[in-house]
Amino acid sequence: MPIENGQDKHQLAPDQSFETGLHDLEDLWLILDAAQIGAWNWNILTGQTHWSASMEALYGFSPGTFDGSFATFIDCLHPDDREIVNQALYTAFTTQMQYEVEFRIVLSNYDIRWVLSKGQVFYNTDAQPIRMVGIDLDITDRKQAELERDRCLKTTQAALLEAQSAHRIKDEFLAILSHELRSPLNPILGWTKILQSGTLDSARISQALATIERNAKCQVQLIDDLLDMARILRGKLSLNLAPVDLRDVIASAIDSIGASATEKSILLRCTLGRVGLVSGDVVRLHQIIWNLLSNAVKFTPKGGRITIQLKKVGHQAQLTVKDTGCGIDADFLPHIFQFFRQEDASITRNYGGLELGLAIVYQFVEAHRGSITARSPGKDQGATFTVVLPLLPDEIESTQSTGLKRQN
User: Fold this and answer.
1) CA-CA distance, 117 to 137, in Å (whole number)?
2) Rounded to whole angstroms, how far apart are CA atoms 132 and 152?
3) Which of 26, 55, 184, 236 could form a disulfide with 219 if both were Cys (CB 3.0 to 4.6 A apart)?
4) How far is residue 132's CA from residue 143's CA, in Å, rounded to a whole number?
């Protein structure tokens, strides 16, 4: 430590008392007050602290009302910052380094200010700390600017990462799209060329035509999904609303998916309670249910089970489709209804398709003022999709039922 005239510069002369130091600081404090810089002088031996007028104003005290207690100073500190200040003081006492720390104070009206505090400890001839002087600066504006800068930086970084992720996801989707659109064409073109050769018997001709039809339907489904997605993204989705009995729509969707389920020996268990009517577009409601059932069949292994249940919950119809399939990873579950998001985006994944169905289902359910949720205990533990739609009032249902009876 530097020595001046044979004496430590942080050591008080034997005849230099605390009170003498106070008088020596008065002129300096007037200057600091003019600059709105708080100044303080702490007698470590007695625990008494003297604050300048600017120091009192900084901490929210009226002139002359600070009681000089170190405990009162500690009470002004934000609870989360008290240990920081104590540690800074301990370091200053034990290392004879300058005291410097940033912390928050809480005013009587619960406003919070940021303070930069700097000080120096002085010692007696026995190297015991006896006095400490310093200044406090209001750095609230600076800290708020720093926090705002950090917030903007994090927001910008998050937006950049999101944009990069969206760009990557769309690139992956386009790669899958090109693959999926081409896949049905290969067997169609192949069997068409074989048919043109005229060398097939009637059994093989039937097989060829069935294969062509199946792949053509697959191609149509892909294109329909893309068109639906385009309408949704452009905000052009429209509904032809009418009173609908969901039991009829569910039964129709089950008929459509039945062959696929039978081919995989999947057991379909269906419980359709009489819930009333909903206001809906029959075509879109059929798409909702068909997509959920198709998704369940697709991801359920041979010999699995799918349970379909329709029941009334309050003033709503609740449709549940539960399968014993491969399940949904917990990390992917929050993204299950988003466009362009796939749990396995590689072209060589186990299951084909664009996987737009659930995103389209979500949009169709929302358009019907309903909601859809997905749950899964985890990998290979199945998944449960629940659709909730508002029911029409009973009087509308009664009128509809009466009309149907009259027609019969």
Assistant:
1) 6
2) 39
3) 184
4) 26
Query: Encoding tokens for residue 331?
Result: 């990390």
**Cβ atoms of 132 and 120 closer than 8 Å:** yes
Contacts of 364 (CB under 8 A, 6+ apart): 237, 284, 285, 287, 288
The dihedral region occupied by 147, where left means phi > 0, alpha psi between -120 and 50, and beta the remainder, is alpha
CB 349 within 8 A of CB 332: no
Residue among 136, 135, 122, 134 nearest 45 (CA): 122
Give residue-wise pLDDT tens across range 274-308: 999 999 989 889 889 988 998 899 899 999 999 99
Model-level pTM?
0.50
Coil, strand, or helix at residue 108?
A: coil
Three-state secondary structure call for residue 112 = strand
Give tens-digit pLDDT for 48-84: 888 988 999 999 999 889 998 889 999 999 999 999 9
Residue 115 CB neighbours (<10 A): 23
Which residues neighbour 85 within 8 Å (Cβ) at sequence distance 6 or greater? 74, 77, 101, 103, 117
269, 390 contact by CB (below 8 A): no
Residue 124's Cβ-side half-sphere holds a number of Cα atoms within 13 Å equal to 10
